Amino acid sequence: MRSVYQRQFILMASVVLLSFALLGCAFIALSYRYTVAERQDTLATNAEYISSYTGAMRQLDPSVLSSSTFQRNIAALASVANLSIILAETDGTMIYGFDGTTNTFLEGGAQLPSSFVSAVTSGRAYSGTFTIPGLYDENRYGVGYPISWVENGQAGIGGIVLVSSDISILTQMWRVLAQIFFFTAVVVFIIAFIASSITSARQAKPLHEMAQAVHKFGHGEFETRLTGYEGRKDEIGELASAFNSMADSLSKSEARRSEFVANVSHELKTPMTTIAGFADGILDGTIPPERERECLQIISNETRRLSRLVRRMLDLSRLEAADRAGAQEQFNVTEVMLRVLVSLESKINSRQLDVDTDLPDNPVLVWGDPDSITQVCYNLLDNAIKFSTPGSALGISVTTGGGKAHVSVRNHGETIPEGELSMLFDRFHKTDRSRSIDRDGVGLGLYIVKSILDLHKEDITVTSKDGVTEFTFTLTLA
User: What's the pLDDT score for residue 237?
Assistant: First the structure.
């Protein structure tokens, strides 16, 4: 299996290689065509000039082709232009020639190629490759032009001029250009490969480190974090930051899970120890018969407390498994509060509490899950009753504003320290005072309240001052 580094490197290298291949083919074709075209234009220009010059001189002096002055002029032109110039009869027989490349005169009598002769004598220029046996056995590139003059009052073609150059000159020029291109291409190609390798490694490194970190997480090393990417502002930096945030969240979740298990163990151990202790005392006769009823009552109370703890934990598990509230519908929150208040009448009377209500005359319709909100109201009222000073007043109120219904439950008792207010909604949290007063509590009631309201995307706040503690939660008006 190829790694991300290998795939990225192969991809980038292939793109660079393909780009240079296409660019090289295009460069070779264009440069060769340009070189040939440029040489062809040079030959054609010189051939046309020599044809005109020779025709003009022949018109003035019929014997000019054999004069030494004329031949030296042609030789000088061939040397300057680094060309081969041949003057021939209309049948292709060479009259005079000079090779400017080697600075040598060409012996007369050679026969020009028939393709040149037939084309030029028809009155048009001709270009192409050719060989002249005994003179030029290797392929050459040349341009032929007719030499025209007027003789006996009639214009006609009196000869042929052939200007040529060695093909090796063309290929040599092209090879120089190609060498420059390929040298540049190799240098750029090496740089591209190095850059591709570094870039691929830079992209693959954080992914490899993240994979290692995930494996460490799987083995319980929750303190593992990705470092060294704080300054990166690209996607890798964002991914590293997101990974660390996820790691923090998982670490906190693991800490909460461990705390939850420890709290559950503690809460289960207390009633089970009590039940086992009194049951063993009755069975082995340690507890006298006259106290058996009292001990059985304690066992019954602890059993019910254990049952409440298990029931609350099941409710909590159901809430944490849900990702949204139950079916949303309209209901009258005032009616729900009064119904819960009536269900707790016996507890209110047992603590001799007065009830102050501030409820609107008209129904307050809200959106939510009626059963879940009923549990919220029950937990808050039950909690308020439990921690109210006997003989004090219990207050409930419902107000509206800003598209929300604000439901408040208030009781008079001990003031909760400000530092503990933010922890009241934690699982199994109990203040020191409640551990001694409320032996029936399991520390899950307010946590369940907060969980239900979170599923409804609603808020709950708590204040405690001068012995008055008030919980207020919101619901969206229908």
Answer: 80
